[in-house]
Design goal:
It comes from Mortierella polycephala. The chain has about 350 residues and is of the alpha+beta class. It has nine helices and eight strands. The protein folds into two domains: about 80 residues; about 180 residues, Phosphatidylethanolamine-binding Protein (Alpha-Beta Complex), CATH 3.90.280. The strands form two sheets. The chain has a five-stranded antiparallel sheet with strand order 6-4-3-7-8. A hairpin with a 4-residue loop joins strand 3 and strand 4. Helix 2 packs antiparallel against helix 3 and helix 3 packs across helix 5. The protein is elongated, with a radius of gyration of 28 Å.
């Protein structure tokens, strides 16, 4: 079922003058107040008036269809379990959601509120519009960055994110960074603020993990993962977006990124994984069963976690890393470098080998 292609645009300058005297404080409050939607007057533009009628008729038809589908859904929920029941319920809920969104999406006020950031994610129409915006604007950039910088497949298999994950270090909005950007180690000593924009109205549980896949593994002459942060049972929904420690289980506390000297850039990746049973079940991750060396693959396999979204940033060594090792990790700072080049013409003492030997 397609959305009616009706475009209504009304641009008006909203200005109001009052005869009473304003103080400095009242002017500041009015300047910070949100703009208010003012519908164009009826009877001025006949085309606009007719369009409103078409929109109202379309909405009425869709509301009737929604009522019928809700009745079918109620009967289906009472029916005996079957192999196809869950799939039918999910399909019917998706149809109801789309009809609810399409019933209001052409409303001029809805369009105005979306463009001005006055969004109520408890409403199907705004969830639909934000999801469409994510699919068109944010998702292509995320997929491009995680592919170009080999987050997939180095850290996890290729997948399509369905959550919009954002991190912010510091208290000001200016500390927002684009996915894949370089940050300085001194900026990331304190744990970040994490918000997750999801598009499901019901509450689901997620596990949050911050992983560095680029730590040197000298013994195996390769790289290994380091787990910097692990939080389980984080409740999220379309209206509950902030990740807080108060209502979740911190399994591993935040460990500041510390790319060792002599290594290339590290990709610090924050992953949001849905917990079992479609996010309905909590998980009990014992602190004794995980460590900083636990890999993401083992974690997901053991606790049936399904990664749904991610973001990442990059860091390289600078002088602040030395302070992190000394003051936070309280251990000597390692320094890595390339293996010295072996000259086949020199012996073990560093002297030039003889061209001929007496056999």
């Amino acid at each position: 079922m397609s959305i009616p292609r009706l475009v209504l645009r009304a641009s008006r300058k909203c200005s109001s003058m009052s005869t009473r005297t304003f103080s400095v404080q009242s002017v500041a409050r009015n300047a910070a107040a949100e703009p208010t939607y003012k519908a164009p007057a009826l009877g001025v533009n006949r085309t606009y008036d007719e369009a409103l009628k078409v929109i109202a008729e379309d909405k009425a038809k869709r509301l009737v269809d929604i009522k019928k589908m809700e009745g079918t859904l109620a009967q289906l929920l009472k029916a005996a379990p079957s192999a196809t029941k869950d799939a039918e319920i999910a399909s019917l809920k998706e149809k109801i959601f789309k009809q609810e969104a399409f019933a209001e999406i052409n409303d001029p006020e809805i369009q105005w509120r979306f463009k001005n950031g006055q969004i109520d994610m408890s409403k199907a129409v705004f969830r639909f519009m934000k999801n469409r915006q994510f699919q068109r604007e944010t998702l292509p950039l995320v997929q491009q960055r995680i592919t170009q910088m080999f987050v997939t497949p180095d850290l996890l298999p290729p997948f399509t994110p369905s959550l919009n994950v954002q991190m912010q270090y510091g208290s000001t909005g200016s500390n927002y960074f684009e996915i894949g950007s370089y940050l300085q180690p001194g900026m990331t000593i304190q744990e970040p603020k994490v918000s997750v924009l999801s598009f499901h109205p019901e509450q689901k549980y997620y596990t949050i993990a911050l992983v560095d896949p680029d730590m040197p593994d000298v013994k195996n002459e390769a790289f290994k993962q380091q787990l910097h942060w692990l939080i389980a049972n984080v409740p999220l929904s379309s209206t509950q977006m902030d990740v807080t420690k108060e209502n979740a289980d911190v399994v591993l506390p935040y460990l500041p990124p510390h790319p060792p000297k002599g290594t290339k850039y590290h990709r610090y990746t924050l992953l949001v994984a849905e917990q079992p049973n479609g996010g309905q079940d909590k998980v009990q991750i014992e602190t004794s069963s995980v460590s900083r060396e636990t890999t993401l693959g083992d974690l997901c396999a053991q606790y049936q976690l399904n990664v749904k979204g991610l973001t990442f940033f990059r860091e390289v060594w600078d002088k602040d890393v030395r302070n992190i090792y000394e003051n936070i990790l309280q251990q000597p700072e390692p320094i890595y470098g390339k293996q010295p080049k072996v000259d086949e013409l020199l012996d073990e003492t560093g002297q030039k080998k003889k061209k001929y030997i007496n056999l």
